[in-house]
Backbone:
């Protein structure tokens, strides 16, 4: 069975490495950032040099004046090249991000579906993701379908406690098959909150590039301090374990997270790398 839950493995290899990359100087120093405003959202994630603040790698999302995401850019400063570019095109309930890839939104503007083409086979398969929310607006389930199959091939369940996402369980959903593909546990610093921070969902191989511009329901109340991602092989045996720890949070004077320090290895389902990370904002 092909690992459809890992169809973005090329991005995992590219973005999990602590290669020196940048888009701009992040700025050093330990002073508290000035207030940002009342309606701001993260638009840039910069992996930076721990001492100088020099940017080493950047995820950037451009927003228009109304707050809609328009463009995604991933930049490598060592080679001076753009690693990835994508645009958001809106039509009705559809957000198209490439000729083959698009998101569908519900009446609350939350993502309810995603369609993409997996080119690892011949011909390529269409993968369809279906996202489900509870009555409080939290993401509780994600199912993955493949061309010509009426039932989902994979199902991810999301467990929330105290307004925080605490666990993700990914299993093969084929009738008669009981097999794990991924488990995630998340821990939080109960004393730390941040205004309008982005979703931290380590299963998000399909949406990590676009996460700053998407609405996947309510976000965790507190700041994550650790997550552990366990991946299983085709036999359901533990294959790899990735652990990330987060600390040294810094905030603007009005409560937006401006940086943290990450220690460990990410499995590839988030835009976070090991080391000092700076967060920039777009404010209306």
Residues:
């Amino acid at each position: 069975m092909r690992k459809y839950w890992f169809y973005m493995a090329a991005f995992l290899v590219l973005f999990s490495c602590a290669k020196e990359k940048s888009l701009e100087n992040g700025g050093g120093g330990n002073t508290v950032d000035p207030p940002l405003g009342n309606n701001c959202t993260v638009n840039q994630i910069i992996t930076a040099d721990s001492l100088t603040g020099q940017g080493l790698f950047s995820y950037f999302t451009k927003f228009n004046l109304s707050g809609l995401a328009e463009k995604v850019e991933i930049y490598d400063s060592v080679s001076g090249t753009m690693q990835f570019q994508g645009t958001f095109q809106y039509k009705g309930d559809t957000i198209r991000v490439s000729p083959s890839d698009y998101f569908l939104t519900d009446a609350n503007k939350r993502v309810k579906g995603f369609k993409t083409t997996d080119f690892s086979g011949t011909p390529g398969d269409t993968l369809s993701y279906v996202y489900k929310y509870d009555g409080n607006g939290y993401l509780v389930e994600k199912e993955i379908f493949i061309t010509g199959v009426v039932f989902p091939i994979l199902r991810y369940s999301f467990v929330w406690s105290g307004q925080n996402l605490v666990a993700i369980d990914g299993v093969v959903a084929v009738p008669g098959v009981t097999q794990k593909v991924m488990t995630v546990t998340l821990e939080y610093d109960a004393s730390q909150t941040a205004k309008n921070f982005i979703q931290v969902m380590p299963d998000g191989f399909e949406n990590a590039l676009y996460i700053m511009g998407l609405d996947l329901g309510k976000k965790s109340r507190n700041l994550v301090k650790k997550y552990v991602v366990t991946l299983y092989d085709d036999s359901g045996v533990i294959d790899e374990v990735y652990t990330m720890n987060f600390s040294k949070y810094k905030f603007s004077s009005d409560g937006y997270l401006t940086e943290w320090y990450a220690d460990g290895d990410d499995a590839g389902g988030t835009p976070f790398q090991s080391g000092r990370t700076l967060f920039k904002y777009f404010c209306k």
